[in-house]
Design goal:
five-stranded parallel β-sheet, Helicase, Ruva Protein, domain 3, binds adenosine-5'-triphosphate, elongated, binds magnesium ion, single chain, Rossmann fold, 4 domains, alpha/beta
Length: 457
């Protein structure tokens, strides 16, 4: 299994060596010279194993170890020492380091030790309560995302899945609400039962009522036979009510009653029917605002909001964009028997920088279109739709997302900090590269990092 390994060493040669060796072993490697950036990186990403040098300026290996032990006790730390500082290494072992190796080491020696650490990390992950078979579940439901934000979502799904509590999934259009609702059903004890989905916006209120509750024969013109509603059909499973914010006030009352009493009647019927279902709802509208505005019942809102799973917009988890793009590329090239193999690095940069107002669905559509349009085995910038390349439009759509009233100076500072944070991540936390990307000097960058407290010190 692929692991995410962080290497810290102030000697460039060792960084390069380790990076090559570990990549060849099939791991994802982030190699940093500055241990403080390493700590910031730990904060931002899911690291499985840390390999750190003992003697570094700014922070020592012991300090790095202490920080990890305190904040990420599940991450195995491997210490590298120069010959002659073995005492310190032994001391580090006593403080919880996983292993140590002395420089210079043989490749085999290093690889063996890393393998053991990776095994341990995987076992830790397996036993950790929340992330229990996370990877498998990702694969199973085709949910892509290694970002912290997405992991947090899956943790919530894990925690919520076993219970029968009503769950509300919120998020902008295209963020994956339905996907998450399904994942919740299929990770629950009801997974063998049905997953029934109803879009509350697609149907007019009258039709929706009989769709939900069913009707008796002759209850209205056209009701030629008794019909079971979705509440009945979902028996033993999950009922997913999408776009719940669109529900009429009248149906809100009826839904509230089902939630309180767990029984209902078919339209035109008198028999009370009780069902064993779990209700999951979704909304891309702010329901709390709808409550304020008096168009959504407050009592119903609280009933629905027992478990709340907010989905992050794609622009808030840009590190998932390349993964998602690759996932969709695979999907569409399989469909079309296409010869397209990948994206150029420049395309990935554009995709990662774009605002994605339509979130994952929009990205999916863009990739599909690119696969069709590509004149070559690589998707190039020419193949991208204009909105993604248009800087003016990008700025405008970015500005449109800001609150209507704001303080100019404060906002500019926030934007500056956000841009620096993004560049840091994009440059793999290499300051020189980051400064270059931003078109500023390294010393100015360092000043700004301090100003915005971006290095973790
Ligand atoms: N994390 C993800 N990994 C893989 N595919 C995803 C992910 N999130 C969303 N998708 C895909 O993006 C598309 C949109 O997702 P979905 O329909 O669940 O979004 P939604 O939030 O319900 O959107 P809407 O508000 O427009 O109904 C689907 O094709 C879904 O499979
Ligand atoms: Mg949806």
């Amino acid at each position: 299994m692929l692991s995410n390994i962080l290497v810290l060493d102030d000697e460039q040669n060792y960084l390069l060596l380790l990076e090559t060796l570990l990549r060849d072993e099939g791991h994802a490697v982030t190699a940093l010279r500055d241990p403080e950036l390493g700590l910031a990186f730990l904060e931002e990403s899911e690291v499985d194993v840390v390999i750190t040098d003992m003697k570094m300026p700014k922070l020592s290996g012991q300090e790095v170890l202490a920080h990890i032990q305190k904040n990420y006790p599940h991450i195995p730390v491997l210490i590298m020492t120069a010959y002659g500082t073995i005492d310190a290494a032994v001391e580090a072992m006593r403080h919880g380091a996983f292993d140590y190796i002395t420089k210079p080491f043989s490749n085999d020696e290093l690889i063996l030790s890393v393998r053991k650490a990776v095994q341990l990390a995987q076992a830790q992950r397996r036993y950790s309560l929340l992330s229990e078979n996370f990877e498998q579940r990702y694969a199973l439901h085709q949910i892509i995302g290694r970002s912290k934000a997405m992991r947090r979502v899956l943790e919530m799904v894990d925690r919520a899945a076993p219970s029968k509590s009503t769950a509300l999934i919120t998020g902008e259009s295209g963020t994956g609400k339905e996907l998450i609702a399904k994942a919740m059903h299929f990770s629950s004890p009801r997974k063998k039962g049905p997953f029934i989905s109803v879009n509350c916006m697609a149907l007019n209120p009258g039709v929706l009522e009989s769709e939900l509750f069913g009707h008796e024969k002759g209850s209205f013109t056209g009701a030629v036979a008794r019909k079971r509603g979705r509440f009945e059909l979902a028996q033993g499973g999950t009922l997913f009510l999408d776009e719940i914010g669109e529900l009429s006030l009248e149906l809100q009352v009826k839904l509230l009653r089902v939630l309180q009493e767990r029984t209902f009647e078919r339209v035109g019927g008198t028999e009370s029917i009780s069902v064993d279902i779990r209700i999951v709802t979704a909304s891309n509208k702010d329901l709390q605002a709808a409550v304020q505005a008096g168009i959504f019942r407050e009592d119903l809102f609280y009933r629905l909001n027992v478990v709340h799973i907010p989905l992050p917009a794609l622009r808030e988890r840009r590190e998932d964009i390349p993964l998602l793009a690759a996932h969709f590329l695979k999907k569409f090239t399989a469909d079309n028997a296409s010869r397209v193999k990948g994206f150029t690095a420049e395309v990935i940069d554009y995709l990662t920088a774009y605002e994605w107002p339509g979130n994952v669905r929009q990205l999916e559509n863009v990739v599909e279109r690119c696969v069709v349009m590509a004149g070559n085995d690589m998707i190039r910038v020419e193949d991208l739709p204009p909105e993604i390349k248009d800087e003016e439009a990008q700025f405008k759509s970015a500005v449109d997302l800001l609150p209507p009233r704001l303080n100019l100076a404060e906002t500019l500072e926030k934007i500056e900090a956000a841009l620096i944070r993004r560049a840091l991540a994009q440059s793999g936390f290499v300051q020189v590269k980051c400064a270059d990307m931003l078109g500023i000097s390294k010393s100015l960058l360092q000043y700004k990092l301090k100003k915005y407290k971006l290095t973790g010190n």
